[in-house]
Amino acid sequence: MNYIIAFLALPALLSSAASYDPLKLPEAVINGPTDFVVRDAKRNRELPVRVYLPATAKAAPVVLFSHGLGGSCQNNPYLGKHWSARGYAVVFVQHPGSDESVLRGQRPAQIPMAMKQAASLENFMLRVADIPAVLDQLTRWNAEEAHALRGRLDLTRVGMSGHSFGAVTTQAVSGQSLPVGRARFTDPRIKAAIMMSPSVPAAGSAERAFGSVTLPWLLMTGTNDIARIGAMTIGGDLDSRLGVYPALPPGDKYELVLHEAEHGAFSERTLPGEGANRNPNHHRVILALSTAFWDAFLKGDAEAKAWLNGEGPCSVMEKDDKWQRK
Questions:
Q1: What is the pTM of this model?
Q2: Between 20 and 30 A from 32 (CA), which of 91, 103, 120, 310?
Q3: How many other C-beta atoms can be found within 10 angstroms of the C-beta atom of residue 210?
């Protein structure tokens, strides 16, 4: 009987998927972001965060974003503006030690080595502890009578995302097993994750690292996605970017490869060594697919999932872009 009902409902579902548009924005004016500081007393560590809130005063699903090496919570506003306009509370987390402070006071010739040193195991461990610290503080602020975030956050629906070193951070807190003793830093509050410029671990096999990931994952990379600082490559080559998806088990796993997209294509700044001309459709694709993914797995939107699993992605991608799912 259930199969008959599902079959009869299929035409309506397909029609809904065809009308679903992850790029459509409401007419309501979205307020600018607000900056806060998370103070983690246990580690004597202060984490700047920038929060974009939707127009509605109702509690909204929460999406966290972790910046890349040398970045800050002020990066990637195009994501914060779009995702918040679509009904998400978007929280950009800054990670001291691997943030913009790495570049401060450095002469150009010193930058490559400073960046390389900042991409350390110590900073990785700090980052993976930053995420639960931020979620803990958001929970407190959400219940605090006089706080600006009071009642604005639905922390039962949390998405995690990040770019480059932020993608590595995201992998670690959303299901990856680490090579040493198969350590795990998965935070159970995270329900889905998006990695922009992901990478396989430097040690151990990709299958051991990613074979037990159960959460929905969306991976995004480009055919020119290599982070170069001078003559130095930081954060993995293209084989490392593309090595994550094959190691994932089936079940709501997706991969986008943008044709000729460089490492900086996922941000709004051209990184050193990259071409000045950027494909404007790349951001359009990133926004469409990421929004549909959040809608499907944080809001439980069946139309969004049908769009994502059907012809929706091809409607915004260019012919040489690649998309796959399992």
A1: 0.91
A2: 103
A3: 24
